Amino acid sequence: MSPNAAIPSHRKPRSSASTRALRAGVTGGILTLAVAGTTVSATAADKPVAETQEMPTFTAALANTLTKSADTVQQVALDYELQAAQDSSAAQASKAAVKAKAEAQRKAEAEKKAEADRKAKEAAKERASRSSERTSLRSASSDAVSSATGGSSSSASTGSNSSLVGFLQAQLGKAYVMGATGPSAYDCSGLVQAAFKQVGISLPRTSQEQSAAGTQVGLDNLQVGDVLYWGGAGSAYHVGVYVGNGHFIGAQNPSTGIVERSLSYSPPTGAVRFL
After folding, report:
1. CATH code matching the domain that covers 120-273, chosen among 3.30.70.20, 3.40.50.970, 3.40.190.10, 3.90.1720.10
2. Helix, strand, coil proportions of the chain in percent (round to 5)?
3. More confident residue, 259 or 103
């Protein structure tokens, strides 16, 4: 027997010099894998082919899954983009609606104001027309009275009557204030005193004094410009001025102010004449 027969072999195990490269990528919807730099041991190389495990191949199924995932992400992004566009459009529409509503309200207010101004102008025009008609009637009445009385003083009396009535009509609508003598407010005797002052006649201040001054006349013989009084002569509590056609003008009370009324509205007690 050889002396070396029992010595075990000192040969190194065989090793495989083969390598595999693993690359991954998705091209045309196909996933390919390659293994690089992997050293297979001699033990594994010595195994039978049946025992060697192959790396699983990820092809169509995995590629399809990844493609679906990419499509899903893209769809979500598109949905967000669409929602953002819809939100922006809704916000713009809301702003436009608010602006349109404000513009409509502004136009409505402008039209309402224009209509109010128009009505006010028409009312003022109508009042002016009525005032002009009353002035004409008073003038005609004064002319008739002057013609009936005759004399050289009739022309002067007619002019005074017209001025007196014109002043009183200009005060219609002003306020009644106790103790006031004009020009924006009067009490009853203050208005009578101011009216006669326009034609150069100075009257006492109070209704009691005015009812006792001048010439007493009957209520069935009134002339334009006569001072009417309510209560006794010398103790009257209210006065006004007769303006013809069965009417008088006076500062009645705080609720009515200066108005024109029919004698039947409040029949006077007596009258005095200064013209």
Report:
1. 3.90.1720.10
2. 50, 15, 35
3. 259
